[in-house]
Amino acid sequence: MKLYICWGTGGSAHHDCHKAHQALIDAGYKPETVKARGQEHLRSSCNSSSREVHALTGSFFVPVLVLDDGSAINKPDEIEAWAQAHPAR
User: Fold this and answer.
1) What is the C-alpha separation between 51 and 47, in angstroms, rounded?
2) Please, what's the b/e burial string for 51-83 (b: 16 or more CB within 10 A of its CB; e: otherwise)?
3) 17-74 pLDDT, tens per residue?
């Protein structure tokens, strides 16, 4: 499991990347986190992580959760819902 998050994650609890990460932690996961520059206006100067996000989703926005089967969830509310519905064993 890999979670792409923005560079500023770790602060405010209302931030989408923080909420997605915290939902996974609360569900018992320890996702590999990858920091990406995740805004549409930064695409011209994107790093390799941002290019990976775009290849997975067609967008530069994060958070993006990549599951072990390779499928990706790129909406914060859906990441939180997935974590609640699939707690770690």
Assistant:
1) 6
2) ebbbebbeebbbbbbbeeeeeebbbbeebbebb
3) 999 999 999 999 999 999 886 555 455 556 678 888 888 888 888 999 999 999 999 9
Whether residue 63 has a cis bond before it, omega within 30° of 0:
yes
Q: In whole angstroms, what is the distance from residue 65 CA to residue 77 CA? A: 11
Give just the sign of the alpha carbon dihedral 47, 51, 57, 59: positive
